[in-house]
Design goal:
binds S-adenosylmethionine, 14 helices, about 20% strand, two-stranded antiparallel sheet
Length: about 290
């Protein structure tokens, strides 16, 4: 039976225990922003009620709200999100902010950026939209993640036509002359990555809403958790222009250790914090290796 927006909201709020979740679900089910629907006094039809109830059932089975809604905000973008790739996190918005500041200080006309492990494409698309004239080569080892990134890129292509290229690659293999002899991709003004950085023990104890739904290959690094971060730091210099930086996201507990490693292989490091004031990553800079 049709009901008012407020009636549906109250039902869903009672079932989920969250006003915010109820507003998101109602809005998605009726394809109208929640407050706009209230103001217009819309009547919710049976099909939309069934849709909202389907969302609630998925939530009750433990699925993350972002996958249930099928889209999520990242900086000023709205991205399609599903189980093919990690849900973009607010802490990663800070990584993008660091990247944008780093590039704007250089004031290059056409900065070249390499993103390793792009997942949904969130960072690559955000940088391309926010840094005028930039080119972002974004790679991932997961074909599923790349298919989602392609969908997101397509959805935003009006703003960033030709600025982002997506490639299937194992870290630097897309730009390694030894593996890609036919493709001269040159060096980059910035490399950024939010690689998998969770160790096996922590992975086994992750919140089920993450462990059971988000791709393991996006989260689990190895026994120590810092393996992928160290691999990227070791290999990056030969792909960087002189004075360019590597910007990495990691767990706050890893920052000190990874900064020590980065300094030991010749980088100067600046640590940055996330919105909760936790140490969240590194801006690592070192002279390019001449080969
Ligand atoms: C933590 S997720 C980050 C996704 C996205 N950049 C974000 O911040 O939301 C890590 C990504 O790295 C990718 N990845 C893991 N191992 C990789 C490898 N060896 N080479 C390239 N990408 C890899 C995963 O598939 C995943 O999409």
């Amino acid at each position: 039976m049709p009901r008012s927006v407020l009636e549906l909201f109250n039902e869903i709020k009672a079932e989920t225990g969250s006003s915010q979740t109820a507003r998101w679900i109602v809005a998605e089910a009726i394809s109208t922003p929640y407050y706009q629907a209230l103001l217009l006094g819309l009547e919710v039809q049976d099909a939309s009620i069934a849709k909202a109830q389907g969302f609630v059932e998925r939530l009750q089975r433990g699925e993350p709200i972002q996958y249930v809604l099928g889209r999520w905000g990242f900086r000023d973008l709205e991205l399609i999100v599903d189980s093919r790739a990690l849900i973009p996190r607010p802490e990663t918005e800070v990584v993008v902010e660091m990247a944008i500041r780093n590039l704007s200080r250089k004031a290059l006309e056409h900065p070249r950026v390499l993103e390793l492990g792009t997942g949904s494409g969130a960072c690559a698309i955000a940088i391309a939209t926010e840094v005028k004239g930039s080119y972002v080569l974004a790679t991932d080892l997961s074909t599923e993640a790349l298919s989602l990134a392609t969908t997101n890129l397509e959805a935003h292509k009006g703003r960033i036509s030709g600025q982002v290229e997506l490639l299937l690659a194992d870290w630097f293999s897309a730009v390694d002359p030894a593996e890609q002899a036919m493709i001269e991709r040159g060096r980059f003004d910035l490399i950024l990555s939010n690689p998998p950085y969770i160790n096996q023990v922590d992975y086994d104890h992750l919140d089920p809403v993450v462990r059971n739904w988000e791709p393991k290959s996006a989260l689990l690094s190895g026994k120590a958790g810092t393996e992928q971060l160290e691999t990227i730091l070791e290999k990056a210099p030969r792909y960087l222009n002189k004075g360019a930086s590597v910007i990495l996201e990691m767990d706050p507990s890893q920052v000190e250790r990874v900064a020590k490693f980065a300094r030991s292989v010749g980088y100067q490091c600046k640590i940055f914090r996330d919105l909760a004031e936790r140490e969240r990553g590194l801006v690592a800079t070192r002279p390019t290796i001449e080969e």
